[in-house]
Amino acid sequence: MNTEKVTARRLTVGEVSELGLQDGIFVSAEMDGLPLDCYAPAFLTEPGKNFEGGSFVARTIFGREIHVLPDNVEECGIWVADKAGEEIEVLQSAGVLLNLALFVPDGNKDSLDSLYSAARDAFGAGIVQRWSEETVAVPDVKVDLYEEPARGRKNTNSQNRDRRALDIYPTRVRFLEPSDGWKFVVEPHKQVVDDTPTI
After folding, report:
1. Which end of the chain is more exposed for a tag (fewer CB within 10 A), N or C?
2. What's the whole-model pTM score?
3. How would DSSP label each residue in the chain?
């Protein structure tokens, strides 16, 4: 677990109520009931001035929401960086979690194991892990992907289409996003045939 020492001080309810959404704070790094004796960088989910009893709600940079009563001595409280404070341990946020969907032509167990081994060799055995694995047979077909205005008029020709990608596998389309104001149109792939007469 990578942590760094940060000098910070604990805030009171009054001080937290003066914070905005952009103010960086530190809250307990506890995850899924697993107590961690350190803190995580976070931000309030709504301005502190909206506090009306109950608890403040903060969202850590790891996406977890935590409810905190700053003045409760049994809780870790809310901290803010301050050179005049004390040292606390803060989780580093250098890592990135990638959820990968891989298409392996003629994929079998040996090819998947080879792919997994190559990834572990490249990034380290302790880094690359299989969290869940779903093997699905995917038809080896291709489609043409177009973009067109999301609110196009009916009965118009297709000249306003923008060819976004060619020869793309249908499974990849799920992981692409259209441009703002545009939508995807997926059609069966049509081989481009040049029938220009030759001499």
Report:
1. C
2. 0.52
3. --EEEEEEEEPPHHHHTT--TT--EEEE--BTTB--SSEEEEEESS-GGG--SS-EEEEETTS-EEEE-TT-TTS---EEE-TTSEEEEEE-------------TT--HHHHHHHHHHHHHHH-TTT---S-----------EEEEEEETTPPTT--GGG-EEEEEEE-HHHHTT--PPTTEEEEEEE-----------
